[in-house]
From TrEMBL:
Species for this entry: Cryoendolithus antarcticus
Transmembrane intervals: 80-101
SUPFAM superfamilies linked to this entry: LexA/Signal peptidase
Protein name, as recorded: Peptidase S26 domain-containing protein
Stated family: Belongs to the peptidase S26 family. IMP1 subfamily.
Lineage summary: Eukaryota, Fungi, Dikarya, Ascomycota, Pezizomycotina
Length: 230
């Protein structure tokens, strides 16, 4: 008897099927709410508590791995830079040098400006030089200046000491030296002023010439023009 008095019968709710009228009513209500009631977005204004001010504690010290990686890349880039300069030095010392020509001492062979010459370093220090070659050398008086002249005498040759037509004094070129002069002798400072040139100052021999205007107009495919030799 007591069990029957305190027994609560279980309520059985009706199962709502998709075709039931209650289910259709709920579906239409949700559709109407989403279509016709606009959604309102709440704007959150940041407060002072939300703003984070960095402090010294927030600064992260680089880890040993990061320091090691940075040092590795610095060393690698430094090695490439050093190798580049070493290769450039070897190239200009033992192979070729390409540079401009300025001045009127070599007219009409070279213009006052705009001509570029290719110099072979194989002939440095007077190796395999001959009379008539165009050479570049370090100026014996101005050590920071390089000059371009024509060889008129090799060791043992007799050359005119002064400008032709002024005097007929001859001079013999000593060993280890050469006699150089500019094609425009009236405006050239050469061996007539500083004497025989030591072969140790010779940097190279001009093997090709190219004018800047022709280089730009004809392009890189044109062959090099040999310098004019009188």
């Amino acid at each position: 008897m007591l069990a029957r008095l305190f027994h609560r019968p279980q309520l059985r709710l009706p199962i709502l099927r998709r075709s039931s009228p209650i289910h259709r009513l709920r579906r239409h209500a949700s559709t109407w709410r989403t279509r016709f009631i606009p959604s309102i977005k709440i704007l959150r204004i940041p407060t002072l508590r939300a703003i984070h001010i960095p402090s010294i504690r927030d600064l992260r010290m680089p880890t040993p791995k990061a320091i090691q990686a940075t040092a590795y890349w610095i060393a690698r880039v430094s090695n490439y830079v050093i190798l580049f300069f070493i290769g450039y030095h070897i190239f200009i010392t033992h192979f070729f040098v390409y540079g401009p020509v300025y001045g009127i001492s070599m007219l009409p062979t070279f213009n006052n400006s705009g001509d570029w010459v290719l110099t072979s370093s194989h002939y440095r220090r007077g190796r395999d030089l001959q009379v008539g070659d165009l050479i570049t050398f370090t100026h014996p008086i101005k050590a920071d200046t390089q000059s371009l002249k024509r060889v008129l005498g090799m060791p043992g040759d007799f050359v005119l000491r002064d400008t032709p037509g002024t005097s007929g004094v001859m001079q013999q070129v000593p060993e280890g030296h050469c006699w150089v002069a500019g094609d425009n002798q009236e405006w050239s400072r050469d061996s007539r002023m500083f004497g025989p040139l030591p072969l140790g100052l010779v940097k190279g021999k001009v093997v090709a010439r190219k004018a800047a205007g022709e280089w730009l107009l004809r392009g890189l495919g044109e062959p090099w023009a040999e310098p004019e030799v009188d």
